Amino acid sequence: MTRGACTDKREALERSDFGDAQFTLDLLAKDLGLVLSETARDDTADMAVTRAALESAQSAIASGRGGEDYAALNDHVAELNHHG
Predict the structure, then answer these.
(1) Segment 31-68, tens digit of pLDDT
(2) Residue 25 and residue 68 in contact, taking contact as beta carbons nearer than 8 Å
(3) Where is 1: in which H helix or E strand?
(4) Which residue in 30, 52, 71, 78 has its CB near the most CB atoms, within 10 A?
């Protein structure tokens, strides 16, 4: 990630504006699902964090955020923690 991309991501996080998606939550969930599918046959792989990330992404998608940038996951989790 270039310095400009990092600055853009920080600004999006600060504004909670994730409409200009560089990598959507839908794509993140797809890729996490692929990782879990590929590692399912490996008894030594501990994928708890990946499963938790997928569950969080799926929760955000279910709330209508699938087309937003993956950084929206931070905002979604914060909202859940604030209301839950």
Answers:
(1) 999 999 999 888 888 999 999 999 999 999 999 999 99
(2) yes
(3) none
(4) 71
Amino acid present at 14: E
CA dist., res. 26 & res. 58, Å (int): 8
pTM for the whole structure: 0.79
- Provide the CATH number for the domain formed by 3-83 in this structure: 1.10.1040.10
Between CA 53 and CA 41, with CA 31 as vertex, the angle to 5 degrees is 85
DSSP of 36-83: HHHHTT-TT---HHHHHHHHHHHHHIIIIITTSBTTHHHHHHHHHHHH
In the chain, what are the domain boundaries? Answer: 3-83
